[in-house]
Amino acid sequence: MDDLPPDSKLTRSKRRWAEEHKFADAAPPAGRERLPPGQHLVTNWPVLDLGQTPDIATARWRLELGGLVERPVTLDWAGFTALPETRSRSDIHCVTTWSRYDNDWTGVSTRDLLDLVQPRAEAQAVMLHGYDGYTTNVLLADFAAADSLVAHAWQGKPLTREHGGPARLVIPHLYFWKSAKWIRRIDLIARDTPGFWEVNGYHLRGDPWKAERYG
Asked: How far is the C-alpha of 156 from the C-alpha of 146, rounded, in Å?
């Protein structure tokens, strides 16, 4: 795992939440409602991170795609933004119980990124790496969902630094800790392996409608 910043108040709090299974007492609904169990709506966009806010100018930003792929690539900003543009609207759900509806994203579909590198047959999962040292894991099927993308704009404006700009992953159907900020590397791997919060007690997959907050 990449080097991480020193323990922060947020890290200690969320580790304690995992130990206590905080917010995990709501039963999932029988059908998939728009608001997952235990969540409440907000109209702002709360900021959560590991205590670092990397300042990555687009001139030096790079996105590496590798691991179990036929054609590993490294994209600079020009190469990334030259890929087909995807626009989508989705809700986001944080494990700390807030949800925000109708977020408009612009970026590059994860399916287009996979087409670029051609996953090998043995690839089953993905490890995501941020410029802040953060890691998180997702199944390849979740990464390749139709509404998943690497976003560089939100609500029609460039993604701000505090929210993961210049580019972050967005996987709307999972809790938002899976949508790595400041994305710098995407590795396809043979089996699902825990990332930072998963090692610290969070669920390996993180489906909000199943209340998969903790392992």
From this structure: 20
Burial class of residue 47 (count of CB atoms within 10 Å of its CB; 0-12, 13-18, 19+): exposed
Distance (Å, rounded) from C-alpha 116 to C-alpha 136?
22
Distance separating alpha carbons of residues 45 and 96, to the nearest angstrom: 13
Contact 95, 163 (CB under 8 A): no
Asked whether the bond before 166 is cis by omega within 30 degrees of 0, the reply is yes
pLDDT band at residue 63 under the 50/70/90 scheme: very high
pLDDT in tens, 197-213: 999 999 999 999 999 99
CA distance 111 to 145: 8
Report whether 136 contacts 205 (CB < 8 A).
no
**Bridge partners (DSSP) listed for residue 153:** 106, 158
Q: What is residue 40's DSSP assignment?
A: E
Residue 72: other Cβ atoms inside 10 A = 15
Which two structure tokens, joined as six digits, stand for 160? 């701000």
Q: Which two tokens stand for residue 209?
A: 């409608």
pTM attached to this predicted model: 0.85
How many other C-beta atoms are found inside a 10 Å radius of the C-beta of residue 115?
12
Q: Please, is 181 exposed, middle or buried when counting C-beta atoms within 10 Å of its C-beta (0-12, 13-18, 19+)?
A: buried
Q: What is the pLDDT of residue 46?
A: 85
Q: What is the pLDDT of residue 33?
A: 87
- Which string of DSSP letters, residue by residue, matches 99-142? EEEEEEEEEEEHHHHHHHH-B-TT--EEEEEETTS-EEEEEHHH
